[in-house]
Amino acid sequence: MSSVDKQLEQLQAEIENELPSDITVSDVKYEGPELVVYTRHPKEFAQNGDLIRKLASKLRKRITVRPDPDVLSDPHKAEERIMDVIPEEAGVTDLDFHVDTGEVVIEAAKPGMVIGRHGSTLREITKEVGWTPEVVRTPPIESSTVSNVRNFLKQEREERRDILERVGRQIHREEMSKDEWVRITTLGCCREVGRASFVLSTPETRILIDCGDKPGAEDEVPYLHVPEALGAGANTIDAVVLTHAHLDHSALIPLLFKYGYDGPIYCTEPTRDLMGLLTLDYLDVAAKEGRTPPYESEMVREAIKHCIPLEYGDVTDIAPDVKLTFHNAGHILGSAVSHFHIGDGLYNVAFSGDIHYKDTRLFNGAVNDFPRVETLVLESTYGGRNDYQTDQEDSEQSLVDIINETHEKGGKVVIPAFAVGRSQEIMLVLEEAMRSGKIPSMPVHLDGMIWEATAIHTTYPEYLRDDLRDRIFHEDENPFLAEEFNHIDGGEDERQQVTDDGPAIILSTSGMVTGGPIMSWLRHLGSDPESTLVFVGYQAQGTLGRRIQTGWDEIPVSDPNDPGRSSTLALKMDVETVDGFSGHADRSGLMNFVKTMNPRPEKVLCVHGDERSVQDLSSSLYHDFNMRTFAPKNLETFRFK
């Protein structure tokens, strides 16, 4: 018998010892980080609401209780009784029964009403029918991504359970080494923006954090083939942690499966869905531009299948000697500061990912309160001495002024925007400005993936700023459904029609003008001196967006009918930059993030910024807070214990 089987046997005995005599346990299994308890008495479990909580506290495990398949009530009868229990105003749209696990997935417009106060309605459902309810939200805006991900995971349910059981046994295996050390190896995004990737190593465990591309430089990828990463074989990596879905952090996650990785990816639920959306688009753009994609779409599905979603604040075992906790990073939907607790109090490391420290219209500001942190790996995108962004209120006023001036001239405002995060932030600004009369009501055309990304945002309101979440679901005032917003889904014909019509605002991907529909808008409107191009997000070095921003007035554009042919376009539209809408903290935000950290770290690695930015930030943190700081290069390894 393996050590894991002995451990499960012992856990079952401990659980049975804690349970009342009328409740039996038929099996205990690990599924990922969770301990799953099978019982012939699910109703009795549900009648004692504190029982699972007490077991979880005593065993220090995340526990899920499932009924044995042979005690389940008939799904048709169960459906009737479930609908009697759930309030009608919850808006149930689907019930999906899974006999193999005894779970019923309930999709509803208002999941909170299905859950009930402190889970009371869920317990009532189990008491009535024996099935274990799982609740998901019906997207207020129909999302093909959310629908496809849910359907795919439903189809792959059996294989996914096998994956989770294998991962669970790996997490809870016996520790093999008595050595104690912690190392971080930098594989990308050091003294540069893009291709974020790190390896966190202990004698027991090797964890890959992020695996992205570099905007404007498709041939520059993380140093994955070094011995610390995939050089010794893909399955020497125990786990992958994805901080958020932007491509400079997620684009090459599916590539790991092409190389033979078969382990878990830990991320938030919206990060999983957005990664699917963005990586599939990444492949589509590569194909349209005549480049060979680095992996097939099947690898994206493999990545989604291996995702284990975690919620903010949940402390989760991901290896025998590592616990992971995600905290809100304030950057984009589902973005996470990733806190690793290593060993039995041995060491603590936090990776900021990308952060925004202050509240925005879309998100609450980044969390920086942890039980312990000895080392912080900190993004430095705007870490330079003069990288201060305009106050958000001033930024919004600047955008309003530009729109009004362009409208008076009869021109159109074109805003290159990242589909995820900045677009939704700008949508909220425009909706409020039109509603309050600060700008005239006019069509706001959303091109590229912006509408789909917006639909995903409304599927996960618990990740949005508190007051915005309340507007969407408690006051039935979803600002993303304002009548001015129009989803461009008619291709070039619709773009030509918009060009021929009157004043309008166009939000279009890609945010750094590296391809996508923004190139079409430049062809249509770039030579119009009455129109304005407004940059609202970071433009990385080497991108066409950065070149236009710094004065290029002749730009290469490809022929839409023959991507291999290009010509030069004289750019006559006004070009403006409005700071303050970035999803990144500026210089003061980064300094304040560290200054107010509780506790303050002993060491900081400044990464994800150009050379000047990381060195400026590293130097200032050292002088102001008397801490050890580093501005590492790629392929450096740091030992911390």
TrEMBL record:
<dbReference type="Pfam" id="PF10996">
    <property type="entry name" value="Beta-Casp"/>
</dbReference>
<dbReference type="Pfam" id="PF17214">
    <property type="entry name" value="KH_TffA"/>
</dbReference>
<keyword id="KW-0862">Zinc</keyword>
<keyword id="KW-0804">Transcription</keyword>
<dbReference type="GO" id="GO:0006353">
    <property type="term" value="P:DNA-templated transcription termination"/>
</dbReference>
<feature type="binding site">
    <location>
        <position position="354"/>
    </location>
    <ligand>
        <name>Zn(2+) 2</name>
    </ligand>
</feature>
<keyword id="KW-0805">Transcription regulation</keyword>
<dbReference type="InterPro" id="IPR019975">
    <property type="entry name" value="aCPSF1"/>
</dbReference>
<feature type="binding site">
    <location>
        <position position="244"/>
    </location>
    <ligand>
        <name>Zn(2+) 1</name>
    </ligand>
</feature>
<keyword id="KW-0378">Hydrolase</keyword>
<dbReference type="InterPro" id="IPR050698">
    <property type="entry name" value="MBL"/>
</dbReference>
<feature type="binding site">
    <location>
        <position position="331"/>
    </location>
    <ligand>
        <name>Zn(2+) 1</name>
    </ligand>
</feature>
<dbReference type="InterPro" id="IPR011108">
    <property type="entry name" value="RMMBL"/>
</dbReference>
<dbReference type="GO" id="GO:0003723">
    <property type="term" value="F:RNA binding"/>
</dbReference>
<dbReference type="Pfam" id="PF00753">
    <property type="entry name" value="Lactamase_B"/>
</dbReference>
<dbReference type="InterPro" id="IPR036866">
    <property type="entry name" value="RibonucZ/Hydroxyglut_hydro"/>
</dbReference>
<dbReference type="InterPro" id="IPR004087">
    <property type="entry name" value="KH_dom"/>
</dbReference>
<keyword id="KW-0540">Nuclease</keyword>
<feature type="binding site">
    <location>
        <position position="248"/>
    </location>
    <ligand>
        <name>Zn(2+) 2</name>
    </ligand>
</feature>
<feature type="region of interest" description="KHa">
    <location>
        <begin position="5"/>
        <end position="72"/>
    </location>
</feature>
<dbReference type="GO" id="GO:0003677">
    <property type="term" value="F:DNA binding"/>
</dbReference>
<feature type="binding site">
    <location>
        <position position="246"/>
    </location>
    <ligand>
        <name>Zn(2+) 1</name>
    </ligand>
</feature>
<comment type="similarity">
    <text>Belongs to the metallo-beta-lactamase superfamily. RNA-metabolizing metallo-beta-lactamase-like family. FttA subfamily.</text>
</comment>
<dbReference type="InterPro" id="IPR004044">
    <property type="entry name" value="KH_dom_type_2"/>
</dbReference>
<feature type="domain" description="Metallo-beta-lactamase">
    <location>
        <begin position="194"/>
        <end position="407"/>
    </location>
</feature>
<comment type="function">
    <text>Terminates transcription on the whole genome. Termination is linked to FttA-mediated RNA cleavage and does not require NTP hydrolysis. Cleaves endonucleolytically at the RNA exit channel of RNA polymerase (RNAP); the 5'-3' exonuclease activity of this protein degrades the nascent RNA released from RNAP.</text>
</comment>
<dbReference type="InterPro" id="IPR015946">
    <property type="entry name" value="KH_dom-like_a/b"/>
</dbReference>
<protein>
    <recommendedName>
        <fullName>Transcription termination factor FttA</fullName>
        <ecNumber>3.1.-.-</ecNumber>
    </recommendedName>
</protein>
<dbReference type="InterPro" id="IPR033769">
    <property type="entry name" value="TffA_KH"/>
</dbReference>
<dbReference type="Pfam" id="PF07650">
    <property type="entry name" value="KH_2"/>
</dbReference>
<keyword id="KW-0269">Exonuclease</keyword>
<dbReference type="GO" id="GO:0004532">
    <property type="term" value="F:RNA exonuclease activity"/>
</dbReference>
<comment type="subunit">
    <text>Homodimer. Interacts with RNA polymerase (RNAP), interacts with the Spt4-Spt5 complex.</text>
</comment>
<keyword id="KW-0806">Transcription termination</keyword>
<keyword id="KW-0238">DNA-binding</keyword>
<feature type="binding site">
    <location>
        <position position="249"/>
    </location>
    <ligand>
        <name>Zn(2+) 2</name>
    </ligand>
</feature>
<keyword id="KW-0255">Endonuclease</keyword>
<dbReference type="GO" id="GO:0008270">
    <property type="term" value="F:zinc ion binding"/>
</dbReference>
<feature type="binding site">
    <location>
        <position position="608"/>
    </location>
    <ligand>
        <name>Zn(2+) 2</name>
    </ligand>
</feature>
<dbReference type="Pfam" id="PF07521">
    <property type="entry name" value="RMMBL"/>
</dbReference>
<dbReference type="InterPro" id="IPR022712">
    <property type="entry name" value="Beta_Casp"/>
</dbReference>
<dbReference type="GO" id="GO:0004521">
    <property type="term" value="F:RNA endonuclease activity"/>
</dbReference>
